[in-house]
Amino acid sequence: MAGAGGVGKTQLAADHARRAWHSGAADLLIWITASTRTAIMSGYAQAAAEVLPVPPENPEDAARAFLAWLEPRATATPRRWLIVLDDVSAPADLSGLWPPDSPHGATVVTTRRRDAVLSGPSRRQVPVGMFTPGEATSYLRAALAERDRHEPDQHLAHLAADLGHLPLALSPAAAYLIDAELDCATYRRRLADLLPDTDALPDDQTTSTAAAWSLSIDRADRLRPAGLARPMLEVAAMLAPNGIPAPVLTSPPVLAYLAEHRTHSKLGNDPAAPITAEQAYDTLRVLHRLSLIDHTPGTPQQAVHVHQLIQRAVREPLPTDRHDRLARTAADALTATWPDVERDTALARALRANTAALTRHAPEALYQPEAHTVLYRTGASLGEAGQVTAATPYFRHLADTSHTRLGPDHTNTLAARYNLAYWRRRAGNADGAADFEQLLEDTLRVLGPDHPNTLAARSNLAHWQGQAGDAAAAAASLAELLEDRLRVLGPDHPYTLTARHNLAYWRGRAGDTDGAADFEQLLADMLRVLGPDHPNTLAARSNLAYWRGRAGDAHGAAADFEQLLPDRLRVLGPDHPDTLTTRHSLGRWRGRQGKRMVSPPRSPSCCPTGSACWAPTTPTRPCPLAGAGGGSGRRRRRARRTAGRPNADAGPGPPPHPHHPTQPRPLAGRDRRARGSVR
User: Fold this and answer.
1) Contact 267, 201 (CB under 8 A)
2) 31: helix, coil or strand?
3) For residue 659, which of 62, 149, 268, 356 sits 20 to 30 Å off, Cα-Cα?
4) What is the pLDDT, as a whole number, of residue 616?
């Protein structure tokens, strides 16, 4: 029987042995605490002294003589026996000491290990997990009823859930309730600050919950790769119990933490040697073998599960400074794992869940000396996944917390307000412009006119002016912003390209066809600066296609969206909001032209990257991916037809997020300032 410490393996084995003895199914019952090889041999030797006429004096010889005595004999009276080897800590300890196969005998082994060597042709591994909710509630009900204590089942169920349905935690909790004469509600309130602690543990337990796990951790730390199990479990203890993505625990921040805090250096490992991802993976397997975690490599988004009480037992003894450093390390690991483009929605969900768990475990540490990047990335991830109504209260809480802990004028607080204003407007709040007006005033006062956050606030304020119906005012504001971004950032900075993008959009909305045509040159510059797979480049392609359709070329718009869709599927994934918008736009323009479009043939000469040609071309502006005149004749003819037409943004309206604020990112050097960026 294999399972984590405290799930009740020993109690199950004892119940089975008691039933076998009282039913007469066994004539010989032997119970051995098998935590070491020496203990196993000593148990066998003691049994030999009981059953052999002349047992050998040497314990090892006596043990082997006893195992030989257990062998079945056809002519002899059947020897019915049951041997329990309780708490085997290392499979190697049983090498040569397994009781023999016998039709009249049976062996029960309890262990926290799940090594393959423990299984075999005549062995069956039985996993032992936590109580089910019903079993846990029944246990508490029966334990209290023995002392004439009764609680509503609903209260018992809540308490059992708080304790993770772990038998070894439930029994001390029941004893504590009885001895302290507390009800479940009071106990649950104290549970956050109090671990159950009784003078005598119930159910004949000989070790506390924390001690049971501590023994396993010490054992794991001595297995190869030595010294890494405890620090790895410390990192896992800060994250979500129900699923930690594998890349988080093999990320560079975690590897650095393992190298710094490895234990048992006396075992021969070089304390200065770096830790590799392979060693981190092997450490996870060691922890899995000792049932301290569940490691399922086949589900990388939720590869590691750790019981919440094991996490608590690992976290609570840590000194405050070590705890806080560990929290920042876990946050760094989440940030390092978070992809710029959330193509894997399951991974994004898991990262958000782990950030939420980390925030619960270390609410103070993530705001010292400043708000950690992962806090902003989580909120942005909610919005990017389409959960704008969830992103709004998230950033409101972040803004309030930053205001309280860091002050109203801290750059982190301003960045949180920036994101709050953005997602409030995206959620349909009509006060978006007012929010950005106040934010711009404070940002100008604190950061100055040329700070990236100030420029970003101006960009969003201009956008909300346009959304309110004044496209001309939005275009005028963005024209002024573009001049400042050119002066401060230069022509090739991504934010400068974004300003050009938004200016072209609002000029088009205001009826300025010359301004909308700027998308063609903008796309060429984005290809040169950002590359073909950058989300902003894809957005510019979408905008160009949209305005072609608005100018009357439904055929060209449908063809452009048809070529854009595979690239958005490849880069962003099928569930990304921008991919869904592209599908919507494609259907719209196909409907406008009255038939389903077929993608034009690929042109290797125009598209050396292997994708169909989608770059804007005119007789005087060749394809930016190839030589002069690149592209098929069909596309060149269409380019001549659409040259000079107005262009705007994605879909049948404004882009899903034309001014998307992201999390604050550290700048180069020691001065780490949060800045809200735009998309």
Assistant:
1) no
2) strand
3) 356
4) 37
DSSP H/E element including 82: strand 81-88
Strand residue runs (E) in 360-494: none
C-alpha to C-alpha distance for 90 and 97, rounded to whole angstroms: 13
The CA distance from 590 to 556, in Å, is 10
The span from the CA of 301 to the CA of 62, in Å, is 52
Query: Distance from first CA to last CA of the chain, Å, rounded?
Result: 55
Mean pLDDT of 580-604: 68
pLDDT at 57 (0 to 100): 75
Average pLDDT score over residue span 476-484: 91
> Has residue 613 got a pLDDT over 80?
no
Among 439, 466, 469, 476, residue whose Cα is nearest residue 455:
439
Q: How many CB atoms lie within 10 A of CB 28?
A: 16
d(C-alpha 448, C-alpha 399), whole Å: 20
CB atoms within 10 A of CB 472: 15
Looking only at the bridges linking them, the beta strands covering 105-111 and 294-295 are unpaired
User: Which positions ≥6 away from 311 have C-beta within 8 Å?
Assistant: 236, 237, 238, 241
Instruction: Give, to the nearest 10 degrees, the angle between helix 388-406 and helix 373-384.
Output: 160
DSSP annotation of 619 reads: T
The span from the CA of 103 to the CA of 416, in Å, is 71
Structure tokens at 623: 């394809």
56 pLDDT band, cuts 50/70/90, is: confident
Mean pLDDT of 219-242: 89
- Enter the DSSP assignment of 203: T
Residue 132 dihedral angles phi and psi, to the nearest 5°: -70, 160
H-state helical runs in 601-647: 633-642
Strand partners, 123: 120
E strand segments, 496-644? none
Tell me the residue type at 181: E
What is the number of alpha carbons within 13 Å of residue 651 lying toward its C-beta?
Answer: 14
What pLDDT score does 212 carry? 52
CA pseudo-torsion sign 528, 476, 426, 353: positive
Q: Is the pLDDT of residue 614 over 60?
A: no
| Helix (H) or strand (E) run with residue 294 in it | strand 294-295
Q: Which residue has the tokens 């990304």?
A: 576
If you write DSSP's letter for every residue of 115-172 in order, what string do you get?
-GGG-BTTB---B--PPPHHHHHHHHHHHHHTTT----HHHHHHHHHHTTT-HHHHHH
Helix/strand/coil (H/E/C) assignment for every residue in 328-379: HHHHHHHHHHCCCCCCCHHHHHHHHHHHHHHHHHCCCHHHCCCCCHHHHHHH
pLDDT in tens, 593-605: 765 444 444 333 3
How is residue 35 written in tokens? 């935590």
Distances in whole angstroms, Cα of residue 121 to Cα of each of 93, 570, 619: 19, 47, 76
SS3 614: coil
165: left (phi over 0), alpha (psi -120 to 50) or beta: left
Q: Which residues, in sequence order, are bridge partners of residue 86?
A: 33
**Amino acid identity, residue 155?**
H
